[in-house]
Every structure is written in C-alpha cells, then in structure tokens.
Amino acid sequence: MIKVLVAEDQVLIQQDVCQKIMKTNKDVEVVGTALNGQEAYKKILKFCPDVLITDIRMPLQSGLELIRQLKEEHIPIKTVILSGYKDFDYAKEAIQLGVDEYLLKPVSISDLEYVLNTLEEKILWDQNSRLHQALYQTLNAGASIPSSVLHTLSFQECCLILLNLDPCATFSFQDWLSYENELDELLKGPLIQKYLKKGESVHICSGQTYNQRILVFLMQKASQDKLDMMISELQKQLRRFTVSSTFCVSRPFVHLDSLHQEYQLLNTQLKNQLIFGQSAVLRGQNFLEELQKPKKTLSGSLLEDFRFSVKSRNSTEFLRHLHTFLETCRLQKMTQKHLSEYLKQLLHLFYEDTLNSQLTGREMEIDEYLSNAKTYEELELSLQILFEQLFRQKNQDSALSASSEALIEDVKEYIRANYGKEMNINDIAIHFSITPTYLSRLFKKYSDIRPIEYLTNYRIQQACDYFSHSQLTVREVAELCGYANQFYFSKVFKQITSLSPSEYRIQHQAEEQNEDAGRI
C-alpha cells in the first residue's frame, strides 16, 4: 500500500485531491493532510508517508521550503508538487530541488493514477534497498532497524536461515563462487516464493564468508513443515552447483532487533556442527543439546599405529592408516571442527621429540585444506602431500631438487604457460609436489607477491594485449585468460587497470591510431 500525505492551504482543493486519490485504481491510503509546510513536516515524522503531494505556495512554510528541509534531513519520501500556470518559476526551482513528479491544477484522476504508478516502482525499490541495508547492519553490528523502515513491514514472526556451501571457509584462498550468478537466481527465484503467503517476504544478505548467504524470512507464521519442504527442494537444486550445503535454521522470533543475536548463535552452531563433505540441516533449538554430547578423540591402537609409522619413518604405512581413518570419519559424519582437531593431533606426532617453530604454520595448513576441500578425496590428496613432505624433512632430505629461487622461476614459467586454464594455488602446489602454504610463502619471499596475485596480474596483462590488438569480445578474452565468468573478469580487470574492458579497448586503440597517424 502507498501512503500519501496531502499539503494544500485551500481546503476545497485539498479535499478534491484526497477524494480523487481514493478513486484511482491503486492500493493507496491518505494518512494525513496539512494546511501549511510546518504542519505537513510534523505529520511526515509521525505517519512516515511514502509520498508527499504539496502545493508550492502555502503560509508559514511553503512547499518548496518543506521539500528543501526534507532533502537536507535525508527523510525518505517521494515528493510531488501541485501548481498552476502562474507558478511556473516556482516549478523550475522545485525541479532543481529534485522533486519526483509535477501535477498541474486542476488535478484529474488519470493524472494522479499516472503519478502513483510512476512512483510505485521507485518506492518499492527504495524500500527494499533501505530494508536490505538495515538488515545487514542489524545482522552484523546489532544496529536497531530505523522506524522509517519498520513502518513499511507487516509480519508476525521472523525466521533466519544461514546457508553455507561446502566447508566452513575459515581459511580460504577463494573470494568468490564460480556459480554465484546461478545461486543468486535460485535464491531470488520462484522456488522460495511459492512457499510464502501474500505479504510475506524473504531478504537475502551476504554472510561473513564468500560461500555463505543469509535468508531473512518475514512471515505471518513461521511454518516448520513449509520451511522443511523448501530446504529440501533447495538442497536438490544446489547439487547442480556444489557437493554439500548446510542450512542453519533459527527458532521463530518476533522482533527484528533479535536478528543479531540469532545470527551469532547460528554462526557458532555452524562452526561447531558443520558435517564435513555432507549436506545437513542444523536447527537452533537443538544446538545446546548437541554440545552436551561426549566428544570422541583419536586414541587407542590407531593412534599408536600412526605414532609407530612416524617413528619408523614408514610413510606408506602412515598414509594407509590415514586413508582408513578418513573413511571412518566420513561414515561417522564427522564435524569439520573435530576433524581439524584430529588431523592436528596427527601432525603433532612429527614434532613430539622437538620444539619446532613451524608447527603453527603447519596447523594453519590443516585449516587451509579443510576450508578448500569439498570432499574427503580432495582433502586426502592435500594431506598426502603434507605428510609426505614431513617424512622427507624427518629423513633430512631436500623437499625440492632445485634451489628455492629456481623453483619460483619454474612456477612463474608454469603460470605463464597455463594462464588460460582454470587454475588455483592448490593446482600449482600439487603440480610441484609442495603444500600451498609453503609455495605461497616461498613465492612471496622471492617475488614480493603471492602466486595468485602473479597469476591474476599476468592474465590481465595478456587481456590488455588482446584488447589493444584484436577485436575479440570481452567474453572471448575472458575465456582465453582463464576466466569462465565474464562478469568476474570485468570486475578484476577494472580493479587492476581502473578501466572497464570496453573503456580500455577504446582508449588504447585510439592511442595506436594517433601514433600511426603521427608516423605517416
């Protein structure tokens, strides 16, 4: 519903405008009237209307003065001025103030309906933008929802869902999802909307990491059965993009100011209860009960088998035990948190006889692998590299056949030769049989940048050359430079060059033409 306030000092004209507004084919309500700008201002603060229709010239405070005050105080309201032919100079001033629409007296029903139609889309867009921003501030900082936003909402209960795709990205080299557009289309599409009644809504915000989304449901009554069916359908659709998805569902609550507290609870639950490599639905009401369950530890004969393998420097036997252990974890639906603790427990076996300053860095590598691996197979591959390297170090063998500086030159050559392929730091590290953290640290030491920065810079450098000397499309250049997502490529290109691909092409091809003309 559109809420309108009419400010007009002539009572008969004011009544006529109000009556004609109610005769339009719009869902509209006149929430108040005023005879001057001062009275209108007070009622705007009280009723928070969406639209102000005001005469230009009124006693005490004119319509123009009122609009100027509203603009200066950033009060979110659409403004429409009423004027006659003799007020044309005032109308020009109103346009300079940024009024949204203009109505000429005498006002007709069709004119009013046209103006309200024009403003309706702007009002909905502004309301959604303000609500989205307010929800984000409340979720992340605990800020209160402004009253100007609350008055636009009609709901009885709220429900919060934290969606996490794949593992908890507590330590990740990634900063975007390759299927981000498809995910947003799914979450904003008809699948969720069909489970909402008229007047109910869902608002989607970014989470704390690139692979999280927050769904805020404003409903008449939060039906657990409907939410379960919706989540089940979403999980089926998400399998097209990703291996696993975790839905953390809050209990229903009434006040939006509780969003921050509920969100923090869901984040804590996610970090403690996410099942590595498998989809799951976690419910807030079961969180405290689950935390009371006794915690299993890696102990007994299996731990002794691992320890004996380390003492005897038998890497083959150690990796065989590791495979068996990871398979057991998968069958037991191990949480990512506990899996991290157990793997670090294995890591400590290599440092029992010495105080090694590298242990903290090695523990961070475990977090990296868990953050980036989507399956147990991917995790095991990374762990094999790590533990094989530890065995080589324990045997005092060199991890690399060439010097560190020569290795980095080989890495650079590998990047330059394969920049057009889909590649990340894990792929490069596996190719050279070293861990991603060690590679990143070594590359930074000899090149002053990280491997992924070098790869990105080289890709953009090649893209610049394509734009300067060819007529290939942006999509074609993106694909040649290893980017499957054209929009992400354009974003990265502009971050580095300060120009969009189109702007860069126009500028540099024009420069070449000028140089050619100068040589002639």
3D structure, described in words:
The protein has helices spanning 11-22, 37-47, 63-72, 88-97, 109-141, 147-150, 180-188, 190-193, 224-238, 259-273, 287-291, 300-311, 315-331, 336-348, 359-372, 376-394, 404-418, 425-431, 436-447, 451-469, 474-480, 486-497, 501-519; strands spanning 2-7, 28-34, 51-55, 78-83, 101-104, 157-165, 201-206, 212-219, 245-249, 280-283. The protein is α/β, with parallel strands linked by helices. The chain folds into 4 domains: 2-124, Response regulator (Rossmann fold), CATH 3.40.50.2300; 154-291, Alpha-Beta Plaits (2-Layer Sandwich), CATH 3.30.70; 300-394; 405-424 and 449-515, Homeodomain-like (Arc Repressor Mutant, subunit A, Orthogonal Bundle). Helix 15 (359-372) runs antiparallel to helix 16 (376-394) and helix 17 runs parallel beside helix 20 (451-469). The chain is elongated. The termini are far apart.
Q: Which structural class is indicated by helix and strand composition?
A: alpha/beta
Estimate what percentage of residues fall within beta strands. 5-15%
Biggest beta sheet summary: 5 strands, parallel
| CATH architectural designation of the largest domain | 2-Layer Sandwich
Global mean pLDDT: 86
Share of residues in helices: 55-70%
Low-confidence stretches: 397-402
> What's the number of helices?
23
Count of distinct structural domains? 4
Tell me how many strands there are. 10
Intertermini distance: 68 Å
Overall form: elongated
CATH class of the largest domain: Alpha Beta
CATH topology-level name of the largest domain:
Alpha-Beta Plaits
Strand order across the biggest sheet? 2-1-3-4-5
Cα Rg: 31 Å
Modified residues (4-aspartylphosphate): 55
Protein name: Response regulator
InterPro entries: HTH_AraC, Sig_transdc_resp-reg_receiver
Keywords: DNA-binding, Phosphoprotein
